[in-house]
Specification:
It is a single chain. With 144 residues, the chain is an alpha/beta fold. 28% of the residues lie in helices and 17% in strands. It contains four helices and six strands. Strand 1, helix 1 and strand 2 form a beta-alpha-beta unit. It is globular and about 30 Å long.
């Protein structure tokens, strides 16, 4: 089970499904932070203060945050998927992998998309992609 903090962009239905899978999900709305235009770094700070991993669709900004501030309890960035049940299942499977979430960036993508990322410098945590249905891919890391 993971303690998650779902930002404003994250689908409520997926949060509800993750709860049925045993995860403790707090949404921005439930935390009283909805529609306030809170900057992403403050969303991450709130999650850290509440011992939670951020889960978001805002991939670009949270990947940058991970790279600049790797001391967090985990960031899960997701590709949006209209198949909410499938999306929740992929997130649950990624969370249940062997490695802890702390300090790591996990990318959960829709089926038929894939990227491979390696360790990005000492002490910066890992970046990895979870895709149970990968296509052939290039093993080259994504440039910073």
């Amino acid at each position: 089970m993971a303690r998650l903090y779902a930002d404003e962009m994250f689908p409520r239905k997926v949060s509800e499904l993750l709860r049925t899978m045993g995860h403790d999900v707090l949404t921005v709305q439930e935390a009283g932070n909805a529609n306030l235009g809170i900057p992403d770094d403050e969303v991450l700070a709130f999650a850290i203060a509440d011992n939670r991993t951020v889960i978001t669709l805002n991939r670009q900004d949270f990947i940058k945050l991970h790279r600049s501030s790797p001391k967090h309890l985990g960031i899960i960035v997701c590709t949006n998927d209209t198949d909410r049940s499938g999306m929740a299942t992929r997130i649950n499977e990624a969370i249940n992998q062997d490695e802890p979430l702390t300090g790591n960036l996990i990318r959960v993508v829709r089926p038929n998309t894939s990227r491979v990322l390696g360790k990005r410098g000492k002490g910066k945590g890992k970046e990895k992609t979870f895709n149970p249905y990968p296509l052939p891919f290039s093993p080259n890391p994504i440039p910073s």
